[in-house]
Each structure stands twice: as C-alpha cells, then as structure tokens.
Amino acid sequence: MEKKVLDKYLEFSMFTNAGLYKNELKKLPDDIKKVGNLIRKNLIHRTTLSAGNVGTNADKKFGDMKKVKWYKQPEDDYLITVPAILAELYRRNSKGFIDDRDENDKLILTCRFVSILMASILKSKGIPCRVRAGHAPYFEKGKSWDHWINQYWDGKEKRWISIDVDGSWSLNEDIDPYDIPEGKFDFPAKVWLDIRSGKADEKKYWNALPDKGLIVVAWSLFYDFHCLMNSEIIYPHLPEMTIYKNFPNQTEKELKEIDDLAKLMLDPDKNLDKLEKVWDTNKKFRLLKGGLL
How far apart are CA 234 and CA 243, in angstroms? Predict the structure, then answer.
C-alpha cells in the first residue's frame, strides 16, 4: 500500500479529531475486538431503545430498556463529533469507557457515530483507519440496510480489514464482525453500478426512514465518498442533487457523472489522486444541503 494512502487515513477529520482526549484513547486496549466491545457496552442504538428487550436485546446485553427513563431520545443531532461524544460520556460517568455503565448513562447513538469513535481511537493509536458507508445484508434476510462501518490497515497482513462495531452484537449471519469477509458488506459504488446496469434489484436496498431504491444507494454513495475524503458528514447533509425533490429529475448525463465517481470508488486506494481531484473541483458532489447549509 502506498504511504500516501496510509498517511491520509492516519489524519483526523473535524469529526474524528480526539483533541484533548487523545491520550485517554491511547490507554484503551490495543486489541481491536476488546475496544469494539467496550464501545458497545457504553452506547445504545436508537432502534434498540425503541424496540426494548426483544430481538437482539432479548438477553439484555445492551441493557434493560425498561430501566431507561421515558424522556431519553436519540442523540445523533447533538453529539456529531468525537470530542462531543467523549465529553458527554465522561460527563455522565467520570470513568469514561466502563464495562458496567448504567443504562441511563449510556449514549444513544447510531452507526455513523460508533464508526467515527472507532476511527478516532485507532488513529490515536497510530493505526490507519477510515469510516465507510454502505449497506449491510447481514441484519435481515432479503434486505440490505444502510450502515456505516470501519476499515483499518493491518500492517502484518498488509490489507484493509473491515469491521462492524455497531452491528457486532446484532448479526443475523455467522460472520466475524471484526474481519468481515469480502462481499458480505455492500459498498455503494458497486451497488450503484450494478443497479444502473440491471445486475441488481434496487428494491433490496433500504435506509432507516424507511425508504428504498436508487436514491437510498445514492445517499450511501455520497456518504462513502465523503468518508473516503476524511469528512464523515452527518445523515441530513447531502448534495442538493440527491434530495427528494431533485433526484427524480436527474438527467442521464448527470447520472453518468455519478457513475464515473462510483467507478473510481471501486478501488479508492488506486484512484485516490483522482478522487481527491473530484473532491477539490466538483461543486455538485462537495457542497451540501441540510439544516442551515
């Protein structure tokens, strides 16, 4: 792997920068799975909170949802950077990452936030790591749900290893979430191109709204593009061309521009220079809409 690629994913973004917490993150276990399990013990996913003690939480491994106070809600809108996540984690319990955090002291965050936290921890330890967005088919048979994971560079094996910390306790398939086999996570570049060429059914791909189809894959594609550029944007922030009122009106020429981006993203390491050029020059792909943007 070229040094430039590894150096890029050692860099912190405005979202993953650990700031004054960097030394605390360095103290966490070096074992990737131990770190992942520790994160899981301190966070609750919003769908787990909503569903309660059923399904993957029938054994209450995420905590007893009946003990969570009635007014607790998802906190994705508040804690969008790693320093914000860590500050709140330590505010609720000064010990920080602990094995027995009370349900009411856990943060209620989804996969994007788990992924930026994991990336920050590994970068703090000097391990190249990146966040990836796409779709996971291993939660529900017949559907591939929008999801964010990580890839870290294993220096001994000389390869990127894909890991799913957020989903690691909720799998519907017998796979290792700390070394996801190739082809078991649906990266959006390939999915986009397969749908566009008629090789895949767009109805398989869903997000949590819930909605399905090519527009959902487009969102994942642009999330993933931004992640590859070390800019792990939040869910509501997307290029104007992909919002509901605009996406159905895209011309074939405009869709082919996305095709070209997707082709580069099939091999982001080989095409890093080209992707960075798109990043630096293409306003339609870079400038976002959402909230006050």
Answer: 14
